[in-house]
Amino acid sequence: MIRFECDYLEGAAPQILEAIAQANYEQNPGYGCDPHTERACELIREACKTKDIAVCFVVGGTQANLTVIGAALKNYQGVIAPVTSHINTHEAGAIELTGHKVISVSSPDGKIRPEQVEKRCKAYTADAHRTHLVQPGMVYISQTTEVGTLYTKAEVKALHDVCKKYGLLLFLDGARLGYAVESPGNDLKLEDLPHLCDVFTIGGTKQGALFGEAAVIVDEELKREFPYHIKQRGALLAKGWLLGIQYETLFTDNLYFRLARHAADLAVKMHKGFKEAGFDFLHNHETNQQLPIFTQTQFDRLKEKGFYFDHFADMKDGRIVTRFCTSWATDPANVDKLLEAIKDL
Amino acid sequence: MIRFECDYLEGAAPQILEAIAQANYEQNPGYGCDPHTERACELIREACKTKDIAVCFVVGGTQANLTVIGAALKNYQGVIAPVTSHINTHEAGAIELTGHKVISVSSPDGKIRPEQVEKRCKAYTADAHRTHLVQPGMVYISQTTEVGTLYTKAEVKALHDVCKKYGLLLFLDGARLGYAVESPGNDLKLEDLPHLCDVFTIGGTKQGALFGEAAVIVDEELKREFPYHIKQRGALLAKGWLLGIQYETLFTDNLYFRLARHAADLAVKMHKGFKEAGFDFLHNHETNQQLPIFTQTQFDRLKEKGFYFDHFADMKDGRIVTRFCTSWATDPANVDKLLEAIKDL
Amino acid sequence: MIRFECDYLEGAAPQILEAIAQANYEQNPGYGCDPHTERACELIREACKTKDIAVCFVVGGTQANLTVIGAALKNYQGVIAPVTSHINTHEAGAIELTGHKVISVSSPDGKIRPEQVEKRCKAYTADAHRTHLVQPGMVYISQTTEVGTLYTKAEVKALHDVCKKYGLLLFLDGARLGYAVESPGNDLKLEDLPHLCDVFTIGGTKQGALFGEAAVIVDEELKREFPYHIKQRGALLAKGWLLGIQYETLFTDNLYFRLARHAADLAVKMHKGFKEAGFDFLHNHETNQQLPIFTQTQFDRLKEKGFYFDHFADMKDGRIVTRFCTSWATDPANVDKLLEAIKDL
Amino acid sequence: MIRFECDYLEGAAPQILEAIAQANYEQNPGYGCDPHTERACELIREACKTKDIAVCFVVGGTQANLTVIGAALKNYQGVIAPVTSHINTHEAGAIELTGHKVISVSSPDGKIRPEQVEKRCKAYTADAHRTHLVQPGMVYISQTTEVGTLYTKAEVKALHDVCKKYGLLLFLDGARLGYAVESPGNDLKLEDLPHLCDVFTIGGTKQGALFGEAAVIVDEELKREFPYHIKQRGALLAKGWLLGIQYETLFTDNLYFRLARHAADLAVKMHKGFKEAGFDFLHNHETNQQLPIFTQTQFDRLKEKGFYFDHFADMKDGRIVTRFCTSWATDPANVDKLLEAIKDL
Fold first, then answer.
1. Do C24 and C36 touch, CB atoms closer than 8 A?
2. Identical topology for domains C2-7+256-343 and C14-254
3. How many Å lie between the alpha carbon of D331 and the closest alpha carbon of chain B?
4. Which residue from C135, C228, C229 is facing A228, i.e. has the nearest CB?
């Protein structure tokens, strides 16, 4: 079987396995107080071209999201997020369990608009009984989004501006940040983020690490307090150097972006292939999550041919939105096989 | 100034004030372990025509909602509710603070349909990765709804049926239950509720008491556990007999429904008056929350004439949805003055 | 039966019932935005001799405690409190439900010492792995304490000093503040508290109101945010003017302290009576909660004579610590009857 | 520097690194739905000699504890635990953040006695106002304990009996379960646990894995619900097969216990060495956490000689309780060097 259903099917870049094996009998102090972690933070600061950020590592994405949001918000605040966002749909109510409402706003393309934020904040501020409402405290966006779309730098800047205007934090979930950066047409670089977000993550799990998300914190108060929240949420890895060593490796010799580029190039190829084979897409983009639309027959036939992919959503006309992902580990030969296979479904 | 903006502007029915004064120097044990509370529970059981319910009293509506929902749901469950529901809009995130998602569903008329519940539950059950989703655990409805509409008995029964089919609890918020029961066209009686809901409330605050909501519990597990939750939520009144004595009074000689009828009759009159004066309504019903639509000029002029009412929502065409409430305490003369005043706005 | 088991057996001072009856058909806006509440706040500011406080009203004591503590602490902080404190023993885990540890410290007399706070804070600060510990964020004390003892002004000042040294808030639970102030030997006045605490309550439930606790907030951040927390915790009374009118009455003509004085005087008499009858006390003080120690025989005999009182604790020698409370409503004749009855148990 | 301060200084057993490398380009479905995880569960069931358990894997210890306790308890319940227990001292309030009180009981040797549980439960049950108390819902113990002591099988059985008598769950934290099992004098085997506990963990992090705790669930309700809680707590590893493959390796050819035996043997040696050198111990046992007592001079001198170890606690006489741990990775030569070094401190 050839699997394309997600971008975390394989282990890690060989450089990472090697580095972990290499360090196996070092005696590293626990909880991220080790030289690898220190070096990883330093390398990320360099990649972000600023010293003015704190970097903390946690194991997974839901963990990162709930720890960031639970740490940043006051009890009575909620987080504005697209209705399709991961925190609103696929985290089992993890954000609500921290006590906060996900204030979902409509989003045909997985992105949120500054006007939506402004409208909500204006309504809140104008309401004489606003103590009865959930106070907007943060905006959550993902790059790439959960449907594979991309924010432009100008779009993120506009969101950041409206957040600052109303005193909200902007949180960018970068579980697929590398894939976004290396996508054609992207103009939002890693080094832009410290100027445009209050906190963001640099995903490892989907981008060449065994596991791990780097939380990059710009906001001063959150910087000071975040380590306490990590421990209290059960998100502090005992052998924190395992996270350190992975990010140390990823941010040496630009490995993180080189791995991402591999996935990005294959995504372009895959997109072209689906297009040429006559498939529609839910969203017409070239990032590493391709969402072509299949008839039930096409869907079944491709499965029969030994391909595994995601049933992403149902169209009202009965067709099926599928998801095919490329990743740092995708074998180009498998993409070729796929594009061959879809020609006659 | 004559106020119509809500139905809790005044104190309590004189019979209640009298009963409290009468009992003032009794020595009643605390926390609802007193004869008045016992008697009140008994009277409510009689009014519900069943012995098979537990009755607990709390002070307020948000308190009742968060205690019921926080008690009934497992951590990973959420409550399905209309997007316009009180718990989704006007409780400051109280439900989320208990850790639970309000799974809001669209509702043009403030009511939820069985199909909406079924669709959500089916999607949940069908999802192989349903541990990543919020599990629907309860359906929340209000009678009357927050926009003054009414569920029929058949509608509640259909909701109850789908809830049972998927293992959900049905919670009916009866903050305005009396006003609903006494409204023209209503066919859902108090005595029906123990057969159609797992838990419901009988509102006091808006219906002649100084304060208080009676939580009526049908579900066996919730019955056993609810008292613990009440205390832990800070919802256990020290002088619990104050709640007992009020409900004892309200359910003696049918006072609760006689008070409600007063409001219901004035609502019919008010509705007719607005209609005759040419006003549109957001929802065309005759319950105690009337939502006529005003132009800005009409709105301002009526304010100038000394009437106070609620700015409920904005229409896209620039007009304003207002809210005028009647209650057990509404002076019929004031309704006459209002209907006179709106004739030439 | 004559009951002494607690100080909230009766309703309210007649002036309060009258005031409520008087205002019954006023149309007061909800949620504490009414003239009575405004006036009550003003009167409390006058009684505290400072304009620099915010005053908010909630219905009950556990509600006040969980709202204050849940509002004041960061997630990873806990509240230091005597092991005998109400929040540690009789609030059903309400504080923990808000997410915070009650860091209990030993206390033979119900009071906490500055040295205990300092020791804990020093240990926390000195610990290199302090992110693994609960950070002390607040000290909770009660006046009078749960065992009827009293803090002196110097003691509270010393606690406040150590709190400021380590960045903690000091919260004084004044559910029985009036009874404390009017007790012989007390030197801690209401007007001292804004200078010595960050937040404190002025209890109504036990001191002549039907219900109600006034939360007086000195800390600037807590002042701004507290109203949001009140609503979210379900602690915002719809007819907030009911709280306003009660405190308005209590703080007019010094009624609050006159009612307290009645209880305080009877407590002195009761204490003397028990002493003369040869009873030991768990704590030898003259406040309104008397804790005389009974043999089982004495305990049973007094019950048989028609007196009801609290079984407070068990002594290791088999004797029983009892609790007899006086209150604003205690009939002096009943105290006489009690003191007569205990002479020959 | 030679480090002994904890038992998670090194990476993983080479077999584990190999297995991970071997599987690196397999395409494994996420979230533990993979053959390695399935096989690991099967192997653990075999090692436990029962089919009647569910096995789930999470990354870390605090995560395991908060997920288990948060899943098992009702809101109003607390967990009884020794005052020295990890959840009471070193998890930053993680348990309280899930809403539950850690009901700490005194424990001079890190263990809890059935009498302590019974006393607490009896008092709870006997209290007429028990809705005001925290209901005991679980007992938490660790094997080995946080101070290196061991429960006998009879002791755990007695605790289990009292738990069943009062309806509590018994949770055994086995972060160091292997080291316990292989310690001299231990009579509590892995296969005993499903009969004596409702839920327990088999620690990986400290016992040869890179990371990971296996939660073994005996209680039927907890079995069904636990996967939902794992996801909601952010504890579901995307590449769950990383946990599966590690436990698959550890439970093949008895590796888990062979690794533990290495540490256990060195612990015996270390204990003997400290004893012969004249050191007292906080607790005189032979498990892998040795707690010898040092004077400040001895402490400083050993540090100067290049050894790193834990400052565990302070004695009242000014001496220091230290902690030296052995693990699966401890180099016997380093133990020799240590025992040589302590001869002339």
1. no
2. no
3. 43
4. C135
Residue A344 has pLDDT above 90, yes or no: no
Please report, rounded to a whole number, the percentage of residues in chain B having pLDDT higher than 70: 100
CATH of A2-7+256-343, one of 3.30.450.190, 3.90.1150.10, 3.30.300.30, 1.20.1560.10: 3.90.1150.10
Pick left, alpha or beta for residue C110 (phi over 0 → left; psi -120 to 50 → alpha; otherwise beta).
Answer: left
Q: In whole angstroms, how far apart are CA B305 and each of A142, B4, B5, B345, C153?
A: 52, 13, 15, 10, 56
Question: What pLDDT score was predicted for residue C269?
Answer: 98
What chain A residue is nearest to D92 in terms of C-alpha separation? A232
**Nearest CB to C92 within list D98, D102, D134:** D134
Tell me whether residues C30 and B9 touch, CB distance under 8 A.
yes
- Contact present, A322 and A270 (Cβ < 8 Å): no
- What proportion of chain C, given as a percentage, has pLDDT over 90? 99
Q: Which chains does A contact via 3+ CB–CB distances below 8 A?
A: B, C, D
Cα C231 from Cα C44, distance rounded (Å): 22
Interface test with C, best of B67, B230, B232 (most C CBs within 10 A): B232
Spell out the domain ranges in chain B: 2-7+256-343, 14-254
The DSSP H or E segment spanning D203 is strand D199-203
Asked if C249 contacts C255 with a C-beta cutoff of 8 angstroms, the reply is yes
Mean predicted confidence (pLDDT) in B273-289: 97
Q: Which residue from B91, B102, B131 is facing A92, i.e. has the nearest CB?
A: B131
| Inter-chain touch A89–B133, beta carbons under 8 Å | yes
Q: Which among A76, A131, A232 has CB closest to C75?
A: A232
Residues of C in contact with D96 (CB under 8 A): 78, 96, 99-101, 134
Interface of chain C toward chain A, CB-CB under 8 angstroms:
31, 70-71, 74-76, 99, 129, 131-132, 135, 225, 227-232, 236
Residue written as tokens 């002390």?
C136
Distances (CA, A) of B320 to B309, B317, D47: 12, 9, 70
Mean pLDDT rounded to a whole number for chain D: 97
Q: Which residues of D23-45 are buried (b: 16+ CB within 10 A; e: fewer)?
A: bbeebbbbbbebebbebbbebbb
Reduced to 3 states (helix: H, G, I; strand: E, B; else coil), residue D102 is strand
| Residues, chain B | 345
Residues 6+ apart with CB under 8 A from B11: B17, B210, B329, C20, C21, C23, C24, C25, C26, C239, C242
pLDDT surpasses 90 at C344: no
Contact B36, B240 (CB under 8 A): no
Residues 6 or more apart whose CB falls under 8 angstroms from that of A79 comprise: A69, A73, A87, A95, A100, A101, A102, A103, A136, A137, A138, A139, A140, A171
Is a pLDDT exceeding 90 seen at residue B344? no
Question: B102-105 and B54-58 as β-strands: parallel, antiparallel, unpaired?
Answer: unpaired
Q: Which of D23, D94, D210 sits opposite A11 (nearest CB)?
A: D23
Spatial CB neighbours of C285, under 8 Å, sequence gap ≥ 6: C148, C149, C150, C183, C271
A36 to chain D, closest Cα gap in Å = 13
pTM of the model: 0.97
The mean pLDDT value of chain B amounts to 97
- Provide the 3-class DSSP secondary structure of residue A82: strand
Instruction: Please give the Cα distance from C193 to C181 (Å, whole number).
Output: 11
Q: Name all chains with 3 or more CB-CB pairs below 8 Å to chain B.
A: A, C, D
Q: What CA–CA distance (Å, rounded) separates A163 from A165? A: 5
How far from the centroid of its chain's Cα atoms is residue B98's Cα? 20
- Interface contact C133-D100, CB threshold 8 A: no
User: What distance in Å separates residue D319's CA from the closest CA in chain A?
Assistant: 25
Angle made by CA atoms D59, D64, D67, in degrees to the nearest 5: 120
Which residues in A lie closer than 8 A to residue C229 (C-beta atoms)? 75-76
A14-254: CATH number: 3.40.640.10
